[in-house]
Amino acid sequence: MADPLSGPAPLATPAAPTHRSGGSPPALRVEGLRKTYGDGFTAVSGLDLEIPDGAFFGLLGPNGAGKTTLIGSVCNIVRPTAGRLSVFGHDHRSRQARGLLGLAAQEINVDRFLSIRQILIYHAGYHGIGRKAAARRADELLALFRLDDKAGQRAYELSGGMQRRLVLARALMHHPRLLILDEPTAGVDVELRSEIWRVVKGLNAAGTTILLTTHYLEEAETLCDEIALLRAGRIVDRGSSASLRERYAARDISEVYDRVITAEGVAS
Amino acid sequence: MSSTGRPALPAYDEPFRAERSPFLWLLEREVLRFLTIWRYSVVGPVLSTMLFVVVFGSALGSHVDTIDGVGYGSFIVPGLFAQAIVNVGFFNGTTSLFEARRDRYINDVFASPLRWWEINAALVGGGIARGAVVGAGVLAVALPLTHGGTPARPLVLLFGTLGLLLVAAQVGVIAGAHAKSLDHVYSMESIILLPLGFLGGVFYSVHQLPPFWDTLSHLDPVFWLVQVERIGFLGQGDVGAGWALAVVWTLAAALTAWSATLFATGRLKP
Q1: Quick check: is A100 in a domain?
Q2: In what order do the strands lie in the sheet with A90-91?
């Protein structure tokens, strides 16, 4: 198996599809997802989505389109009003499904009482990993993300870029098979962004399914082998970046996005 | 970022197996949290209770008649013990859970294989552990100062204290689940908890009050928590041991059901 964390994975190279064959269930299947919050606001309505095992899948849409609600529903943070969600064939609420999922959230949501090494170790613990294995894995990821010299510090003592790396490291602690990245490069500099993508592309090459949300459309176009466009809680179109460009006679995904999301948003 | 090796992906068709219980990890985290801030979480409550014992028990106690044949210092220790545990249970639950919600760190826990009741139990377990540590500290300091001896009714004390610890921890978790800001947490403490504590008979026997207030005191949950401890330590209180234990454990069961409902139904929100 290829070492997922080694070798260059430049943004300029389009990602080759890595979907697995052999009858494995989809990494994520969402059927008829609806979420209406207590104040009556429906964030997601009748959403269907299937992401194959091994895909690098992009989810694009404006703020409020329902991306975070969808991710929250998959990760058991939001309780859906209706619909069925499964992760590798397991009900998303099951322990099997949760164990296969990793989430790097948009915000820096880390435990302020623990050192960054402890943050990683306890996260592994919540996934049932033993103490020694958790410590070994934490040291491995601290080194990978160049946080090893900060291991004893609290997260709030780190720079924004380091905090972002910490959140990603935490999501990888338990070797998730489906990694959800919710705007992982928001607010990070160009150098760190390319470092993050190199790691993530390596993981995908080794078989990890990636679900990515980002506002950087060129990143989605370059990295993802399939993209879904989400607007007002519904998937309005999906396909490879090439097929979407062709369908909308667009030069790039930004133009597709403008036509599908912005224009329809204005029209509606 | 440097490179490192990585084992194969986990199989998708194998059941979840834990090398170590996720519940134990979260419980350990809850205990570690308050031990990390031990000056605030343990020493502070013990010290403030000791000041009550010194000022009210030793300095002013010599000017107060015995209550039901018990010296004033010894009389107030069980109530101060109960009040200290209620206070730390409240603050443990509110700070731990409220801050986990505010910082959205709780999402990492919700997304993990931990089951709702394990999360609930670990948070409550943390409050119980902190209450037990602070309670032991209070007794270690207060009993020598008041020349306290062996508990008069050890079984009442044991089951009463277990109920007290559970009530206090559940109150904290429920308050932490509902709190919307730190101001909200502190106002709950000053508007609800503090008056209930002072009116709960920590410093007096409710039989010393006019009949109306005596009766009204029985509606104060803290009154029953104080009574069960006083009966356990001193062998006497304003109510019978059976009633005190029954009320405390009914309260504990009701709060446990309330707390469990919050977690089970997904009403706990960041």
Answers
A1: no
A2: A42-51, A28-36, A82-87, A90-91
Secondary element (H or E) of residue A87? strand A82-87
State the count of interchain CB pairs (< 8 A) between A and B: 144
Q: What is the ipTM of this complex?
A: 0.89
Q: pLDDT of A101-129, one tens digit each?
A: 999 998 999 999 999 999 999 999 999 99
B150's CB contacts (< 8 A; 6+ apart) are: none
> According to the model, what pLDDT value does residue B205 have?
87
User: Could you say which of A167, A182, A197 is where a domain stops?
Assistant: A182
Tokens of A167: 């959140």
pLDDT in tens, A63-89: 889 999 999 999 999 999 999 999 999
How far does the CA of residue A125 sit from the closest CA of chain B (Å)? 6
In a domain, A250, yes or no: no
- Which of A165, A182, A199 represents a domain boundary (last residue)? A182
Using the predicted structure, report yes or no on whether residue A43 has a pLDDT greater than 80: yes
Closest residue on chain B to A174 (Cα): B10
Chain B, residues 102-141, CB within 8 A of chain A, namely 103-105, 107-115
Confidence at residue B158, expressed as pLDDT on a 0 to 100 scale: 97
What is the predicted pLDDT for the residue at B8?
A: 67
Structural domain includes residue A139 = yes
pLDDT given at position B1: 57
B15 burial level (CB within 10 Å; 0-12, 13-18, 19+): exposed
Domain count, chain A: 2
Chain B residues inside the 8 Å CB shell of A175: 6-7, 9-10
**A125 in the same domain as A159:** yes
The answer to whether residue A232 sits within a structural domain is no
Looking at the structure, tell me whether residues A85 and A139 fall in a common domain: no
CB-CB neighbours of A242 under 10 Å: 11
CA distance A199 to chain B (A): 8
Would you say residue A15 has pLDDT above 70? no
Q: Which residues of A fall within a CB distance of 8 Å from B262?
A: none
Domain range for A41 is 26-48+81-89
Q: How far is B118 from chain A (nearest CA, A)?
A: 11
Q: What is the pTM of this model?
A: 0.89
Give the pairing type, strands A234-239 and A226-231.
antiparallel
Other CB atoms within 10 Å distance of the CB of residue A173: 23
The residues of chain B scoring below 70 in pLDDT are 1-8, 61, 269-270
Q: In B, which residues are within 8 Å of A209 by CB distance?
A: none
pLDDT mean over A207-213? 96
